[in-house]
Automatic annotation (TrEMBL):
Gene3D superfamilies attached to this UniProt entry: Rhodanese-like domain (3.40.250.10)
Residue span, Rhodanese domain: 18-137, 169-282
The protein, known as: Rhodanese domain-containing protein
Molecular functions per Gene Ontology: thiosulfate-cyanide sulfurtransferase activity
Record bears the keyword RNA-binding: no
InterPro entries named among the record's database cross-references: Rhodanese-like_dom (IPR001763), Rhodanese-like_dom_sf (IPR036873), TST/MPST-like (IPR045078)
Keyword terms: Repeat, Transferase
Organism taxonomic ancestry: unclassified sequences, metagenomes, ecological metagenomes
Region forming the signal peptide: none
């Protein structure tokens, strides 16, 4: 174990940079400009990092009944991890430029495979730059051996749309929507074809997980935010969603930081909910 926590500060990472078994994933991505992330990576990243593309590496093929970012096939994901030099004993730290909003998807996928040592860089690349730590340009030669990765898919809870419908009908789940309030209430929808939210969902914007500097808020502050939303139940009754199952992973990470058990992920999220055109929506 290189780090004691799943949340790593820039100073802690800098002290271990180049350590044996440490693999960094740069998850810089722009939903509205998908090619911008790779270019940003080439322009400057933490030394030794690999680039993890949200659309190509951290999601599977999109179909007519899926959301925008379905889970990748387990075999494809494991081959990708192996190509990055990740094995079961690696310590993986993911980061991006937006407080972990994208990087949390990489963290969650690793935990879904049963990976033990996965973490986020607190504050991401902006915090790294602010600390005046080194950057690297272009694509570096991997310093770790590439090979096979063998995980155990299914180590984190996953809901599909049918299970969400049943859980809401029977009152057995608490559905937290991590999108911002404007999207949740249908006042603004820059990405998906339909605005609004799932009836019965509770708005819990992932931005509440972060301080103004883009770092995670203290665990006590996170608990004060999430405890009233979770209520008297347990976190294993909580399902997190967003637009496509990405920033929902950020909420899952934050809830775990509070000390709760890991909530489940509604992978398809809002983009899958509206894909059929006949499911109920709320705009308020």
């Amino acid at each position: 174990m290189i780090f004691a926590s799943a949340l790593v500060s820039p100073a802690q990472l800098a002290a271990e940079l180049g350590a044996s078994g440490l693999v960094l994933l740069d998850c810089w991505f722009d939903l509205l400009n998908p090619e911008a992330g790779k270019q940003a990576f080439l322009d400057g990243h933490i030394p030794g990092a690999r680039y993890a593309d949200l659309n190509k590496d951290l999601a599977g093929p999109v179909g007519p009944a899926t959301g925008r970012h379905p889970l990748p096939l387990a075999g494809d994901l494991q081959r990708c991890l192996g190509a990055w030099g990740i094995d079961q004993e690696s310590t993986v730290v993911a980061y991006d430029d937006v407080g972990g909003a994208i990087a949390a998807r990489a963290w969650w996928l690793l935990k879904w495979l049963g990976h033990r040592e996965a973490a986020l860089l607190d504050g991401g690349l902006p915090a790294w730059r602010a600390g005046d730590y080194p950057l690297e340009m272009g694509v570096a030669e991997p310093k770790t051996k590439t090979g096979a990765y063998v995980g155990q898919p299914g180590r984190r809870g996953v809901y599909d749309t049918a299970a969400i419908e049943v859980g809401l009908r029977d009152g057995t789940i608490v559905l937290l929507d991590a999108r911002d309030e404007k999207r949740f209430r249908g006042r603004q929808e820059p990405i998906d074809t339909v605005a609004g939210h799932v009836p019965g969902a509770i708005n819990a914007p992932f931005q509440h997980n972060l301080s103004d500097d883009g770092r995670f808020r203290p665990a006590m502050a996170l608990a004060e935010f999430y405890a009233p939303l979770i209520g008297k139940g347990s976190a294993d009754q909580v399902v997190c969603m967003c637009g496509s199952g990405v920033t929902a992973c950020h909420s899952i990470f934050a809830i775990e930081l509070c000390g709760y058990e890991s909530p489940s992920l509604y992978v398809g999220s809002w983009s899958e909910w509206v894909s059929s055109g006949d499911r109920p929506i709320v705009m308020a």
